[in-house]
Every structure is written in structure tokens, then in C-alpha cells.
TrEMBL record:
It comes from Priestia aryabhattai. This is DUF4304 domain-containing protein.
Length: 200
């Protein structure tokens, strides 16, 4: 069985029936689940390793929370569009408490053992992944989670705090980010400091 077909089989039989009642929609062509809650959209996308082969599917998931509201706010504030509306994003192995060992992927072999392997994955999705991202209920919690990501984008965290009407936190996080900035992201942070806090 081709890797994508093997994975799709287990998604349709063992995961879709659990996620649909939770409001998730599944796009079979892109192997992606998504759900909108208020201003936030939670997505989990399946990635198949290039080292997969016939009857062997090595996979993991990428998770993200995005918001069109952020895109609109940014456009109104800056007069230009964002490249994306992502609030937070992570590979599944960076989600706190994901998996037990040091594994960074799951593997299906088109054998009976697949049922146990995929069940382990499903438990992680239901009990760890979804509850983790459900903590984002407003722009304050979005900023807090973005601050705890593997890669922190201080300019976006600042924006989220401003959207939450937390001006002091926004300035503090921007100051902190500027102190640690690389040449690559210094300009974005400096522009925000000048625009948002020049008079303060």
C-alpha cells in the first residue's frame, strides 16, 4: 500500500470519527484537519517522510492556530498584508507531553501492529494536542502561548498583547525582544517600537 493511502485509511477509520463530533473538518487531499472557534482556527496537518516506502508510512503532524482577525488588525494598523495569519505553530514533538520517549514520528507497516501504533497517535491528538491548543481563548492567552513556543516571534507577541489591550506587556515583550534580536529581525521589532510606543 502507498504511504499516503495507508495513512488515509487509518485517519478515516480511527481518527475522523473522533474529530468530526468535535467540529473538525477533514481535507483528504491535503491530509489536514481544521476547526474554527471564535477568532481562532486550529489545524493539524499530516506530514509523510520522504523515507517512507511501499507498506511503510513514517509520519508526524504540524499544528497551528491562525486568525483572520489578526490579519485584518495588522492590515488596518500597518496598511499592508501579512504573509500569514499564524498565531502559533509547532511540530507535534514540540507540544508539551507529546509521546513518551524520544520518538519524533509514528510508523505504519500495513500490519496488525499498525492499530496499536495509530491508537497511540490518536491518544496524543485527543488528550495532549487538542487540549494544549484549546488553551488559546483570547489574545492574552494567544500571546502567552506564543511566548512559550520553540521559536518566539516577539513582534507578533507584541501585536497579540496590543490586541488584548495589554499595552505594558506589549512594550515589555518588545523591549525584551529587541535586547535579544538578531540582525535578521531587529528591524521589524524596531519599527514596532517606533510606531506603537514612540510617544511613551
Amino acid at each position: 500500500m502507498k504511504p499516503k493511502d495507508l495513512l488515509n485509511f487509518y485517519i478515516k477509520t480511527d481518527l475522523l470519527p473522533l474529530l468530526e463530533p468535535l467540529g473538525f473538518k477533514y481535507a483528504k487531499s491535503t491530509l489536514k484537519f481544521s476547526r474554527k472557534t471564535g477568532p481562532f482556527s486550529l489545524s493539524l496537518s499530516f506530514c509523510i517522510s520522504q523515507y517512507s516506502s511501499q507498506d511503510e508510512c513514517i509520519f508526524w503532524t504540524m499544528w497551528d492556530v491562525s486568525s483572520n482577525e489578526y490579519g485584518k488588525w495588522y492590515e488596518q494598523t500597518w496598511g499592508t498584508q501579512l504573509a500569514n495569519n499564524v498565531v502559533v505553530a509547532s511540530a507535534d514533538w514540540n507540544i508539551p507531553n507529546w509521546l513518551e520517549g524520544n520518538e519524533e514520528h509514528f510508523t505504519l507497516y500495513n500490519k496488525k501492529s499498525d492499530k496499536k501504533e495509530f491508537s497511540k497517535f490518536v491518544q496524543n491528538v485527543i488528550n495532549i494536542g487538542i487540549p494544549h491548543y484549546e488553551q488559546i481563548i483570547d489574545w492574552n492567552t494567544a500571546a502567552e502561548m506564543a511566548l512559550n513556543e520553540e521559536d518566539v516571534f516577539y513582534e507578533r507577541v507584541c501585536d497579540f498583547y496590543l490586541m488584548a489591550n495589554e499595552k505594558k506587556k506589549a512594550k515589555d515583550v518588545l523591549t525584551y525582544g529587541l535586547e535579544r534580536a538578531t540582525d535578521e529581525n531587529y528591524e521589524d521589532l524596531k519599527q514596532r517600537m517606533d510606531k506603537y510606543f514612540k510617544e511613551n
